[in-house]
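User: Please predict the structure of the protein below. I'd like the answer in structure-token form so I can feed it into my own downstream comparison script.

Assistant: Understood. Taking the following sequence of 177 residues as input:
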Amino acid sequence: MGFAWSNMFVHPDDDPRTDGGFTGERETLVGYLRDQRLTLELKCAGLTADQMAARAVEPSKMSLLGLVRHMAGVEQGWFRIHLAGFDVPRHYREDGNRDGDFDGAVPDDAVVREAFERWRSETAFAEDYVDTIDDLGYVGEGGLALREVLVHMIEEYARHNGHADFLRERIDGRTGQ
């Protein structure tokens, strides 16, 4: 039996996430969203392409790679399309397949690399975009306020990070955090 954090992702002193302590609404929303994004990255750290693409349990299509691809599409949808109003093709929805993010999550190093590049590109766009807007009540092109989108994104990551917990534990026993 190991010590308290032995099967977790990083030593508590090396955890890149904050432990709350934010001041004000903007800092709180942006801070918790940043921490949720970092959590997804931690759940995927150090895995092979085969492990990233490993499915949870039949008939589920869910995998850590699928979650990264899915969240790239979610980031794009809410920030680039709904808020900023860009008219761009949706990630992983070729041929109208709404499950392309999970269907295309195959054990290939290039697919894993591309998924992380796309996800990081979308999160960078979102962070830059949010930084340009002073008013959290700002209503984007899709009719929703920035505040509502930030809360939704925290919820979206929190739900999927729960899935990621179980996926990672099934792969190598690492848990929580």
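That's the full token string. Confidence is low (pLDDT under 50) at residues 1-7.
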